[in-house]
Amino acid sequence: xxxxxxxxxxxxxxxxxxxxxxxxxxxxxxxxxxxxxxxxxxxxxxxxxxxxxxxxxxxxxxxxxxxxxxxxxxxxxxxxxxxxxxxxxxxxxxxxxxxxxxxxxxxxxxxxxxxxxxxxxxxxxxxxxxxxxxxxxxxxxxxxxxxxxxxxxxxxxxxxxxxxxxxxxxxxxxxxxxxxxxxxxxxxxxxxxxxxxxxxxxxxxxxxxxxxxxxxxxxxxxxxxxxxxxxxxxxxxxxxxxxxxxxxxxxxxxxxxxxxxxxxxxxxxxxxxxxxxxxxxxxxxxxxxxxxxxxxxxxxxxxxxxxxxxxxxxxxxxxxxxxxxxxxxxxxxxxxxxxxxxxxxxxxxxxxxxxxxxxxxxxxxxxxxxxxxxxxxxxxxxxxxxxxxxxxx
Length: 393
Description:
Radius of gyration: 21 Å
Number of helices: 17
Number of domains: 2
Largest sheet: 6 strands, parallel
Distance between the termini: 15 Å
Strand order of the largest sheet: 2-1-3-4-5-6
Number of strands: 11
C-alpha cells in the first residue's frame, strides 16, 4: 500500500526555516524536504517514516510551502512559480471579539472561506498537489489539514485512482461540509469522532504521538535542568483557561514562555516579561528537556478531553509534565505517577511548589512518563492503528 501524507505548516515557521538556511529556497525539492524534516517541527516525517518501516512506501507533501512546491513543479517542467511564503497579513480582530466568536468558529468558517479569511490553496497550488498525486499514485491518502484541503478538493483527489481517504483533525471541523467523501475520519477527541459519526461518517479515536528518533538528534544533557517552569505553545483567544493559568504562574514563579502571544494580550499581562520568543522543532524539545517542570493546558475547545501533542512531546523527551486533569487522562497516562495533573489554578500552584522542592519525585514521574510514551504512544503504534482500521474496512 502506497501512502501519501498531506500537511501544512505555519507561515511563521516557514519564514524561520528559510531565514536560518540562506540559499535553501533555491535548493532542489529533495534537499528542501530534508531540511524541513530535520527541523523536527510538527509531525515532520514521523508518519511517513513509520508507514515505510512497516512495509508501506510513504511520502509527505507540505501543501502550503510555496518554495518546496515550486521546486517540485520546476523539476517537472511545470510553468508554475508560487509566491514566497510570508507571515499572514490578515488584520487581527480585537481580543474581545475573538473571545466572543471562538465557540462559533465551526459555523463561521464556511463564510470566512468565501471572503478569504480562512486558509485555502490557490489554483496553482492545487494544480501542483493534484500532479503530485498523479505521480505518486497513492493507495491511501492521510489528510492532516481539512482546511487548506477542503472536501471540494478531496473529491478531485478521490478521482485520481480512488485512494482510501483518511482525514485527521484535532478541533471541531467546519459546519456544512459533506465529510462522506472520506472513508475514515480520525481525531484524538471522542467528541469530534462522535460528531462525524452523527453525520454518517465512519470515525475513530486515534491519538497523537511521539517519535523516539527525536531522542537520537538531541545533544547529551550537559547539566541538570536549568529552567524552573516552562510553557511552550500558543496564548490566544482560543486558550482562555491557559492564559489565566500562565498569568497566575508568572506572578509567583520564574516562568519562561516560548511560542507566540496574542497581540490583544493587555500590556499589563505578566506574560510579556516571561516571553522568550518562538521556538520550533528540535529547539522546542531541548527546552522541554531542560525544564524542571513543563506545563500543559489544553485548548478550550478540548473541554473535558486530553490529547494534545504536548502530552507526548514532553513525556517523550523525559520531561516532568504538569498537565490539566481531563476525564480521559487515565487512558493515556497514570495521573500523579506518569504525569502530574492539576484540577484548578490553585492546585497547580501548590503542585509547582511541591515538585520544585522534590527532585526525586519529579525524576521518578518523568522517567515513568517517558517509559509509557515510548511503549504506548509512538508514531509507529498510531500507524499500526490506522492500518488496522483501513485494512479492516
